[in-house]
């Protein structure tokens, strides 16, 4: 019990540092998920409805990014941008790397969701006089959304976990803050376990949000 009370004492001392690290993790993850999802939807639409050259370009983009380790993307976004004279800073470079990685996965998810819809749906929409934009907004997108929501939730959770890699470029997110605390009190097991618990809470919140959206978009039986 003495060790437990000592951990609680150190946890209280480090509470503000941990909260700042958690806030940075949540901010990075949120920005990367939003930006990556928006870009990913555009990539997915290009893969399905774009011209031949655009489809080839987007296919190369998704294949290259998905085949590249996230750590490499993080290092590239930070050091390559600095080498070409663009001063992004660690936070912005980290968000950029995660957003690009997220977009490649969301693009494939959107492509799969749209292509899974029967061609008869589009033909029926044309038959009743709907334009392509109306067909997409009222027929295709709602059906695709219901199909790719579970995969999108998994991708969002992956972005939270991938944010731990940003410590290598000096982003003071939760993992780096935890390591700094451990370097002072040497309570490795306790603080790593606590950090893991916080990551679980964040990802559990994303999962619950995804389930809520799934219920709201479900077709009444």
List the keywords.
221 residues; mainly alpha; MetI-like fold; 9 helices; 84% helix
Task: Summarize the SSE layout with pairings.
Blueprint (H helix, E strand, L loop, with lengths): L1 H12 L1 H35 L2 H15 L3 H14 L5 H27 L3 H9 L4 H31 L11 H12 L2 H30 L4
Can you give the mean pLDDT? 88
- Looking at the structure, the CATH topology is MetI-like fold
> For the CA atoms, what is the radius of gyration?
21 Å
| CATH C-level class | Mainly Alpha
CATH architecture label name: Orthogonal Bundle
Q: Give the strand content.
A: under 5%
Number of helices: 9
Tally of structural domains: 1
Largest sheet: none
| Uncertain segments | none
The CATH homologous superfamily name equals MetI-like
Which structural class do the helices and strands define? mainly alpha
Outline:
The chain has 221 residues and is mainly α. It has helices at residues 2-13, 15-49, 52-66, 70-83, 89-115, 119-127, 132-162, 174-185, 188-217.
Task: Please give a structural write-up.
This protein is mainly alpha-helical and 221 residues long. It has helices at residues 2-13, 15-49, 52-66, 70-83, 89-115, 119-127, 132-162, 174-185, 188-217. It has a single domain, classed as Orthogonal Bundle (MetI-like fold), CATH 1.10.3720.10. The N and C termini lie far apart (53 Å). Helix 5 (89-115) packs across helix 7 (132-162), helix 7 packs antiparallel against helix 9 (188-217) and helix 8 runs antiparallel to helix 9.
């Amino acid at each position: 019990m003495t060790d437990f009370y000592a951990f609680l004492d150190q946890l209280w001392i480090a509470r503000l540092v941990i909260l700042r690290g958690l806030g940075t993790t949540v901010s990075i993850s949120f920005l990367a998920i939003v930006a990556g999802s928006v870009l990913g939807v555009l990539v997915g639409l290009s893969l399905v409805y774009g011209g031949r050259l655009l489809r080839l370009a987007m296919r190369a983009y998704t294949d290259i990014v998905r085949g590249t380790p996230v750590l490499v993307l993080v290092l590239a976004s930070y050091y390559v941008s600095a080498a070409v004279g663009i001063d992004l800073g660690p936070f912005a470079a980290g968000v950029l790397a995660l957003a690009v990685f997220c977009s490649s996965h969301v693009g494939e998810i959107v492509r799969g969701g749209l292509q899974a819809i029967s061609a008869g749906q589009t033909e029926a929409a044309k038959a009743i006089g709907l334009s392509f934009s109306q067909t997409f907004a009222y027929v295709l997108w709602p059906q695709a959304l219901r199909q790719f929501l579970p995969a999108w939730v998994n991708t969002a959770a992956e972005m939270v976990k991938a944010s731990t890699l940003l410590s290598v470029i000096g982003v003071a997110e939760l993992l780096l803050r935890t390591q700094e605390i451990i370097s002072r009190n040497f309570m490795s097991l306790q603080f790593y376990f606590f950090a893991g618990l916080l990551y679980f809470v964040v990802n559990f919140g994303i999962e619950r949000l995804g389930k809520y959206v799934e219920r709201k978009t479900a077709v009444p039986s």
